[in-house]
Structures are given as C-alpha cells and as structure tokens.
Amino acid sequence: MVDTKGNTVTYTWNCTGGDCYPGQIDYNSYRVTFYLESRPDTFSGAAYSQLIQTLYRVRSVLVNLVGVSPIRAYKLSYATSALTNRSLLA
To answer: What is the reported pLDDT for 47?
Structure first.
C-alpha cells in the first residue's frame, strides 16, 4: 500500500486454525515484528461458516530499521480474568 506521500507499507499475516495473527509490518525503512506464544486459554468460535480457533497471543514486539539493530522492543505481560478466565494485558 502506498500513501499520498509515497510511503509504502506492507502487512504480513500468519494464519493458522482459521485465525490470522500479525507477522510483521514494513513501513519505509522500519520493520515491526510480532512474536507469538501459545495461549493457555485457547477458544473456538465460528464466523462466516468457518470454525476459528484462537491458539496464540502476541508475546513481544520488535521495532528496527531494516538491516540495523533493534531500536525498540516491547514484552507483553498477561493476567487471567477472574470473570472469564481469558488473557488480559497486564
């Protein structure tokens, strides 16, 4: 995708179990990479006549200039909801 200023963005998705998760985003010279982990609270549902299983959640996010060391890193922490037993960002 290209915006009106000529900046290019590309999205990469990883799909499994009928569900899709972010893989990476490339924006000009920057790359954002998403790292996944297995969910302890997997769940299934249906959408548009397809079974969907949510098996993963984002563990961490890394931002770097393409070909250069990372410039930002984020590690996500989760808690478990007492009401639903599902993962919540802590």
So the answer is: 80
